[in-house]
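[recover] target loaded
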């Protein structure tokens, strides 16, 4: 059975950037502060608050784009990506939905060339804390709290082409990408603190087939 099919894997990798302040305001990005102490009207989405782009975020994203051999776009923009999350107070995420900073790169990892579809900048959401029930997990929790300290922390999202074929290849690619960010000095890539997270887009197809199968997205994998 396994010889008849192959796995097709593409990754979406989110990495928090090691700037002192958030992407659109001057609040601290320091990890571990008391809940809701590193916040302001901008990162909590208050009416009338206007974002101002952090120049260092752009410089860090450019460094990543060049390191993964992307074509750097001379014109890019931010968009409002509308959806509701309880830990996303604006009900939208400021991201580069249509015109990212970089496209069409490639990374060599584990003997395979992995295409980079795009690299874009965006803001992180906050963090939900579930109280009671099964050790604080959602199932059986009696209530939930939200900490907006992380909201507005700058991220790069790197989206690969569906070029990976095994979990081992995906692991080697993630290790190589982590080494790149660490060598550039632009993120601590701490998986325990959520600084580097990965969504996996996984499907199956018959060996030799050109068409992709039905894709399943596995969210927020880290350590």
């Amino acid at each position: 059975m396994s010889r008849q099919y192959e796995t097709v894997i593409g990754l979406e990798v989110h990495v928090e950037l090691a700037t002192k302040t958030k992407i659109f305001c001057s609040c601290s990005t320091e990890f571990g502060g008391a809940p809701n102490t590193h916040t302001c009207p901008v990162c909590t989405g208050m009416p009338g608050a206007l974002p101002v782009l952090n120049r260092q975020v752009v410089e860090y994203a450019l460094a990543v784009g060049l390191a993964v051999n992307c074509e750097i776009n001379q014109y890019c923009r931010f968009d409002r990506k509308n959806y509701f999350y309880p830990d996303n107070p604006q009900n939208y995420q400021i991201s580069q939905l249509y015109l990212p900073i970089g496209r069409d790169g490639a990374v060599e990892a584990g003997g395979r060339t992995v295409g980079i579809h795009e690299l874009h900048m965006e803001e992180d959401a906050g963090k939900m804390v579930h109280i009671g029930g099964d050790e604080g997990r959602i199932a059986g929790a009696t209530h939930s709290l939200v900490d907006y300290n992380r909201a507005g922390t700058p991220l790069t999202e790197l989206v690969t082409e569906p070029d990976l074929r095994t979990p081992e290849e995906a692991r080697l690619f993630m290790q190589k990408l982590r080494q790149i960010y660490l060598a550039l000095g632009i993120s601590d890539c701490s998986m325990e603190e959520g600084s580097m997270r990965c969504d996996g887009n996984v499907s199956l197809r018959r060996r030799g087939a050109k068409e992709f199968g039905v894709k399943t997205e596995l969210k927020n994998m880290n350590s």
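[recover] notes: The radius of gyration is 18 Å.
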